[in-house]
Write a structure and sequence with these properties.
This is 3-isopropylmalate dehydratase large subunit, chloroplastic. With about 425 residues, this protein is an alpha/beta fold. About 30% of the residues lie in helices and about 15% in strands.
Length: about 425
């Protein structure tokens, strides 16, 4: 590591971070490394090129491999990507490989059933005080657990911006509204290579899935990672997910912040991000004249069980049918199953799937990240024409969901469902109050 008389102190990641100053370089032992079928083959290629064809990973139990995207049976490239992951899993004896489904006759890929950011949490890989890196920009979702989680990059310690969200959260506001408010305030470059820390009474009142939504979109503000201090809500969620010991870490009284923003959430109204930027914030009620062609509820940002429960609540309250095609794409197979098995509160025992059917929505599709990448023309809910879509996804750049001239309005599940019922961008308070 340099001079023969130099002194090296080995330490845990958080001991190292605590000993460093902002901007200094660190080497840390990462606790979890995640890759998927989109970025994994390239990473595996670099691994073998740099370390040799017979190189072995140092700890097979730290690596998590997650195929994430649904493509057609004719997508040979997609099949090859998954085959590369399977070969690597066998070569390295990787413990955590979340399998795909194939046809018995052709052995071709027909379904990949996970959004990696959500599945990491469901399978107990998100733990307070640990370091998680992945070849997916939305790996930052795991910051909801008090974990340093980031897409793979270099090894600097980013300075921290603190966001204090206080006040009672109105019944018509979801975490998607909170993060759209934050990004609209600081812009899509406002937290470039910064840590975004979320605290305050409003944050403390969020469920784990809502906290995941908040941290998921820090990358849309340029952030390196997002983090929410672990608390009882975190610990209760993890009881059913993992038995691996962990040690929470918190900002102390001497912590230095690059900037601090304060928001009174009790005054917040439902928001959207207009095309073509997640930072193009507007009140939903200000966009009521925007006619839409479809609604998409899904992705790692808006395809969790609670997201669909929220949408079902709006459909149930209205008693009406949707006026535009409404696509439902769960983040994982577990979420898909929840839609058919968990009763929606105050519904008389109806499940989300029953409520969606009554409202005239499309049948819930196989779990996927497909529409978030434009994808091939047959990817579920892809914009093949220059249409207008209200979506619970995380990005609305040109071509993000297909056609470059398509217009995407990012919104919460409440706002997405309300818009589906009217055929234009709609404030959900029309149905929730």
């Amino acid at each position: 590591m340099g001079h023969i008389e130099g002194q090296i102190y080995l330490a845990s990641p958080y001991t190292a971070a605590a000993s460093a100053l902002t901007g200094e370089n660190l080497w840390v032992n990462v606790d979890v490394l995640m890759t998927n079928d989109i970025t994994g083959p390239g990473a595996i290629g670099v691994f073998k090129r740099e370390f040799g064809e017979n190189a072995k990973v140092r700890d097979r139990e730290k690596v998590v491999v997650i195929p994430i995207t649904t493509f057609s049976q004719l997508m040979n490239a997609a099949n090859r990507n998954v085959d590369t992951l399977r070969d690597f899993k066998r070569e390295q004896n990787i413990k955590y490989f979340y399998v795909t489904l194939r046809t018995s006759e052709t052995s071709r890929l027909i379904q990949i059933t996970k959004a990696s950011a959500t599945l990491l949490a469901q399978e107990g890989h998100c733990r307070p005080g640990e370091v998680l890196v992945g070849t997916d920009s939305h790996t930052c979702t795991a910051g909801a657990f008090g974990q340093f989680a980031s897409g793979i990059g270099n090894t600097e310690v980013p300075p921290t911006i603190r966001f204090v969200l206080d006040g009672e959260i109105p019944s018509y506001i979801l975490a998607k509204d909170l993060i759209l408010q934050v990004i609209g305030e600081i812009s899509v470059a406002g937290a470039t290579y910064k840590t975004m820390e979320f605290v305050g009474t409003a944050v403390e009142g969020l469920t784990m899935e809502e906290r995941m939504t908040l941290c998921n979109m820090v990358i849309e503000a340029g952030g390196k990672n997002g983090v929410i201090p672990a608390d009882k809500t975190t610990y209760d969620y993890l009881k059913e997910k993992t038995t691996v010991p962990y040690e929470p870490v918190y900002s102390d009284e001497q912590a230095r912040f690059l900037a601090e923003y304060h928001f009174d959430i009790s005054k917040l109204e439902p928001l959207v991000a207009k095309p073509h930027s997640p930072g193009n914030r507007a009140l939903a009620r200000e966009c009521k004249d925007v006619k839409i062609d479809r609604v998409y509820i899904g992705s790692c940002t808006g395809g969790k069980t609670e997201d669909f429960m929220a949408a079902a609540k709006v459909f149930l309250a209205s008693g009406k049918k949707v006026k535009v095609p409404t696509f439902l794409v769960p983040a994982t197979q577990k979420v898909w199953m929840d839609l058919y098995t968990i009763p929606v509160p105050e519904s008389g025992g109806k499940t989300c799937s029953q409520i969606f059917e009554d409202a005239g929505c499309d049948t819930p599709a196989s779990p996927s990240c497909g529409a978030c990448m434009g994808g091939p023309r047959d990817t579920h809910a892809r914009l093949n024409e220059p249409q207008v879509c209200v979506s619970t996804t995380n990005r609305n750049f040109p071509g993000r969901m297909g056609h470059k001239e398509g217009q995407i309005y990012l919104a919460s599940p409440y706002t997405a469902a309300a818009s589906a019922l009217t055929g234009h961008v709609t404030d959900p308070r029309e149905f929730l109050q």
